[in-house]
Amino acid sequence: MNEGLPEPEGILLVDKPQGITSHDVVDKVRWLYQTRRVGHAGTLDPMATGLLIILVGKATKASDLLMAQEKEYLGEATLGVVTDSQDADGETVETNPVPALAAEQVAAAMATMLGDQQQVPPMHSAKKIGGKKLYELARKGVEVERAPRAIRIEAFELLSWDSPRLNFRVHCTKGTYVRTIAYDLGRKLGPGAHLTMLRRTQSGQLRVERAKTLMELGAMSREQLVACLVPVQEAVPGADRG
Question: Is 192 within the bounds of a domain?
Fold first, then answer.
């Protein structure tokens, strides 16, 4: 795909829009940069927006290092409605009245969720068990036992509370399912909850403010596209370019 031209190399920060998969973004970047050697450092669900780290060329070797970095998200959860996927893309399985809650009560419940803990991956996730992705089993109505994984919630801040919706900021370790955090918070508060909005704002030292939209990238020349690539060393100091 890249005949006669040197292979581009670096990290591309994309502001993913809602409604498409992370793999859709990878395919678009492959076409834009005319190279098959493109990957990502951590997926975002189709309903989620924000920072998607795309690795181009030899930068794909830094995938594990980039995926290991802590993440920050802005989110919205709605109390009183529980879905099978724990987010707005799922089917409603439970509805409950929302009690009168003060913002202080919501924030206090959030504060109890800080620190090291074990989190069970949701059935509607891309995690594999026995070679099968969990969401593939979930679509068939099959539920399997999932081993909990160690995570840490560094910060869980209430930004606004307008019953039944709350907006929050969360800073957490890799592999954390924010929709499960929303689900667990809903159980703590009583009526249950599901995630209605999620935006990744930061991964390690990389912030979404530096990211480009697919529309912006599509309007660029090859020289401009190459200039958008962040060197691996800048994103992961000490990384071996290999």
Answer: yes
